[in-house]
Structures are given as structure tokens and as C-alpha cells.
Amino acid sequence: MASINKVNNRKNLYRVAYRNPYTDKRSTAYYKSKDNAVIALSRWQQVELFKKNNMDWESLLHKQTAPITIGKIFAAFTNNVLSTMRNVDTKAKYTVVMNSCRKVFPDNIYVSDIRTMKKHVASIEVTGWMIYKREMELIYNRSRRGIDSYLRDLLHIFNWAFEEELIHKLAMKKSDRYKSTELKPITYKTWSDEEIHSLFNHPELDELQKDIMWLFAVLGSRANELTGYQTNKPYKELHWEHVNLENNTLQLLQKRRQTRETVAVHPSVMVILKKWKQYGCQRPLDMKYKALNKIMHEIVAITGIEFTCHDLRRMKAQVLRNETHDLPQASRSIGDKSDAVVDNHYAGISVAEQRATNNQVHDSLTSIISNN
Asked: How many other CB atoms are found less than 10 A from the CB of residue 162?
């Protein structure tokens, strides 16, 4: 049961220990006055009693708590969490997510009302977070996978608010996200040997076009890690000071990294960069993403092979995995920490790898059986 104790050497002298009804873990709260501590003790004892007897303890807990608006939750998260983050991209991501929620649930909406709200969206009455999902898809033309990523981040925000006791009832649950059966299968470009051969040997492509393709295919880097001009994120620009032509290394600021990391580069890439420096290029890849994307579209138009700059990153992972049958190595080769992401979005298991696995199982089984 919940308990109260007086503690020394603290500004708030009274400690109330209780069992969190959602997580079933012990938690503590501190109070300046004994009266407030006793009130809190009574509340948690009553909640524990309701839960023990299978009564509606959530409603009881909610009634004892002053309602709070979405705007106040987002302001608290911004001031207490985002303000301490060092990664600019992560801060921007959460800001976009909160703004997307505001499009559907304005700042003055009480958090406690969301799950029971009803609204007609495109002639169908929906409830709670389904309102958000349906409006984002049908009114704001977001894909379900994009919406689901927003829901994941919103879940993090509201769980933080719950853990900080800004709210005492879960505003979001995992079940509010899309189920896998509600999402379209993930599809991505899978390169064939014939396409790769045709692409790099196409007679109508000029030297610059082939050099840029080779740069991305061999490095496996993202476009915003290599482009020399980025108005919104100048700290990610690649300059000549980040290139070591003698040691064949680059200093790249990769996704989710706090600082630039040294990346070993194949000599064939350095040959291209040395050539561009001799030509007088101000930056290694002396262009913005818009100009790079234009070149990619020109290559697609000439070759008839549909691909994006990011598909050249996939090319590296796929070629390496097909050759080595080693998923972790393919992940590391493109600077990705997650094998699952690479497996699902870049280089899934190939027929060649499946055959190699089948042969290993066959040989192992045959050896075991013959020895018996």
C-alpha cells in the first residue's frame, strides 16, 4: 500500500511512496506540506484499493486530477525535453509531429477528452486517435506509414507526460498505431546485374553523370551527407577540409550522429574528388540537392532505368550482401546501425543467399545423418 515518510535534507520534506497502477512499479513523490502529502497518500491508497478489487480505478484517478490541454503538454515537452536535445534534426522532427497533431486537435483540447471524442471524417464517424489517422490520410494526403511514424513519436510525447505525472491516464496506447495488416508492404528498388552493367556502361552518359553515380554507389552515403550546399542545414555540408586526399578518408556527419566520423573511402572515389578539385570546384560535390536531383532525372531519362539517388545507396548494400551473405556487414557498409532497417528497406535476402543457406543446411544434415 501507499505510505508516507518524513525525510531530512530536502526542500520538500514529505515523501509519498505508491505503486504506479499502469506499470505496477514503485514510484515516489515529494511535498512541502504534510497536508498535501496526506491528500496524495489518500488518493493513491484509494486507487490501489479500486485496482485490487477490479473496480474502475482509471476513472477515479482521472477525476482526482485537474485536466490539462494538448498545448500545455507540447509546451512542457518543448521546454523540458527538446530544449536539452543536441540533434537539430530530432528537434525539428518532434516539432513537425506536434504541429501535425495541432491540425486535428487544437491546443485548447483537453488531453483526457481525445480518446472519447467523436467526429465525422469523410462521411464516417470515428473516435479518438482514428480521427487523427483519418484526417491526416484523407485531408492532408499523408501516407499511412508516414502517419504511423508520427503516431510513434506522439506516443513517446504522451508517455513522457504520463511518466512526469502531467497526466494520470494514458492518452495514447500502442494499439492506436496502425497494425501491420493496415500498412502497404514496403517496396524498394532491387538492382539486377544487367541494370548495373547497363547503367555504368551507357554510351550516352557523360563523365560527370557517371562519376556522380559511382560516388554514391561506392560510398553508399546519403545525399545530404555529401552535397556541398545546404541552406537549412549548413553544418552538414561537405567541404574540402573534410576530405583527406592522402589517407583516402572523409569526415561525414551521418544520420543520428552528433559529430563527424571518419569514413574510409575506396581509392576510385578519391580519384574523382581529386579531379574535381583540380577543376576548381569550391566544394567536393559542388552543388545543392536540387541540382543533384536534376542530374539523376537526366540519367533516368537517358538510360530508361528508374532509380533515385538513394537507390544507389541501396545498390551498395545489395551488391555487398549478395556477395558476402552478411547482413551486418551490409548494414555497416552504408553507415546504418540497424540490421532490421537494412533488411526491410535496402537489401533483403536474395535468392543467391537463400540458396547458399539451403546448401549449408543440406550439407550439415547430410553430414549428421551419414555419421549416425
From this structure: 20
